[in-house]
Amino acid sequence: MWGQMLRDPSLSVVDSWLNRRFRRRFRVPYSMFLEIVEECKVHNVFGMQLRRSKIQVEYKVLTRLKILGRDLCADEIDEQLNIAESSVNKFFKMFIYNYANAMYSKWVNVPEGDDLDRVEETYRRMGFPGCIGSMDVTHIYWDKCPEALRFLCKGKE
């Protein structure tokens, strides 16, 4: 099923039904998927060895996007694609570790100049003066948190 979708020329048409379906199913636009596949190939994210893998990089990336975007487990991927659960788990861990290491500096950065001013202004309007970013499920110490906002910025810790 996924192979038919990837071979369909209408997938490349930005506002086509298939393109929108791809976005719903895998939680990223098709153009971004192609970029991720290329980055995985360039940075050898899946640890390709001398022998050619039976599973194409495109399918490995799609399975990772399904797991991340839809919270599927390896068993469900096995049912859909007939890729062994152990392979799905192995390549998922490889993808998370290697992709994060290879792409961290490209996607994670502290804003500078006008971007910094714009971001800081957005957070200031939301009641967080001095904040320039936030992360989910991460506790970051904010030493200049105003006392009046402390209850908003502190979890159980």
* Tally of strands: 0
> What is the mean pLDDT?
84
Shape: elongated
Q: How many strands, what sense, and barrel or not for the largest sheet? A: none
How many individual helices? 7
Helix content: 55-70%
Compute the CA-based radius of gyration.
20 Å
Report the order of strands and helices: HHHHHHH
Structurally, how many domains make up the residues? 2
Poorly predicted sequence stretches spanning 5 or more consecutive residues: none
Q: Tell me the span between the first and last alpha carbons.
A: 47 Å
Proportion of residues in β-strands? under 5%
Structural class: mainly alpha
Structural notes for this entry:
The protein is elongated. The chain contains seven helices and no strands. It is 55% helix and 0% strand. The protein is mostly helical and 157 residues long. The mean pLDDT is 84. It has two domains: 2-107, no CATH class; 113-152, no CATH class. It has helices at residues 2-7, 17-26, 30-42, 57-70, 74-81, 85-107, 113-125. Helix 3 crosses helix 4, helix 4 packs across helix 6 and helix 5 (74-81) crosses helix 6 (85-107).
Describe this structure in a few short sentences.
With 157 residues, this protein is an all-alpha fold. The chain has helices at residues 2-7, 17-26, 30-42, 57-70, 74-81, 85-107, 113-125.
SSE topology sketch:
Layout: H1 2-7, H2 17-26, H3 30-42, H4 57-70, H5 74-81, H6 85-107, H7 113-125
